[in-house]
User: What shape does this take?
Amino acid sequence: MLQPWKKTGSRPVGDFRIFQIRSDRVISPRTGVEHEFFVVESVNWVNVIAITPDQQLVMIEQYRHGTGTVELEVPGGMMDARDAGPEAAAVRELREETGYEGEKPRIIGQVFPNPANRVVPIIKEFRDAFEKYGKVQGVPSHFNLEGYLAGKILVEAIRRSKDSSPAGVVRGLEMLHDWDMGGYVVDFSPTKHNGSKFVDMSIISAGGELIY
Assistant: This one.
């Protein structure tokens, strides 16, 4: 029977405000050897496509430090602990950023692959790891996949820069040029901080439930 790894220690590595990284020391139950793993702690995000009664798209202007330009974009932000789900977070963010009060929100798209599609190599890897180490049985959620990919990206950045400080993580991310994770490509550079252009459409049932 598969046994959990025993944690012998944990320390914070860096606080990047919108996410944190910690280092865990754990012992393999199979070999008894101690290993170090980097764990990413972050919240989920939402973006909102809001349409007014006269069919106008609601957008905002915001200065983005990553690109150094004023961007025209849809409203969005981080999910709070008090939000009941992505839909509730979307309504709140729309109200806070634009003053509009949305209703009947629906999930229509996500920027990660279908977590059920094992044909994609990175999804097969994720599903195998989820089934082996996950504490929850059944099909993993999109949030599980998002955390898995974010963790792999940040660990790879630290591996390349050999520096887990905030500046080291940034340097490592900027080294990830056209890095194919197995069907999901990440592309950063010193002048390009938007690492992925992947977009996948969702399927919604007649009752408004997310199928995929």
Observations:
- The chain has a mean pLDDT of 84.
- Helices lie at 86-98, 121-133, 142-161, 166-173.
- The CA atoms of residues 10 and 24 lie 4 Å apart.
